[in-house]
Amino acid sequence: MKAIQYQEKINQTWLLGEWQYLPDSRLLKKGNIEQRLSQQLNQVLLLLIKRAPQVVTRQQFLDVIWSNKFVNEDALSRSIAELRKLLGDSASEARYIKTIPKKGYQLVQLIEPVKTRNNRRFKTVLMTLMAVLLLMSAYWLNRKDPTVNLLQEAVANASRVTALPGMEKQSILSHDGQSLIYVKDTPLNSQIIIESVADAKKKELNYQDIDCHHRCWCLS
Per-residue pLDDT for 160 more than 90? Predict the structure, then answer.
């Protein structure tokens, strides 16, 4: 817990454990519970916050809060006891105000301005949203269209059907996918090749052997 450096920071709302402390209104709030402090108790608590986490000596309390009054240390002890009662604290199990024997008192509860807590929550929410957006972006970037996947798989698994000398062109696949027909040009002639996709068996036909009106050339 860092010491508070500036007096102007005292005049804002503070989170003190389970309590919200409003110095200007002299209020301690916890849910629906509100405890209004006397002027003297408010000054005592303010001094503890201002010096936290340092120990505030008894003499420092007397000099700051009872500077123009003739009182003994019993007034300070009573004020500390009242503050502890309002906070739900105790001397034996101090969660807020600890007695330092022969020295004074120390605020041991973590304190922070409400604005700081809200800023930290905002930053946490913002970082969480950014992480979610990054994860969603990565998901969509890596997500591929099913059609693209099928095409990529087909290309990866494709194998060469023919590897004959000469120029092969005008290939047609039969409707049942069992035969491939293409024209093979060689320096001597041109042939029509009917090749089985399953076992690569070929049947070669010359143009003069083909009856273009015969139904056998229908690949349905």
Answer: no
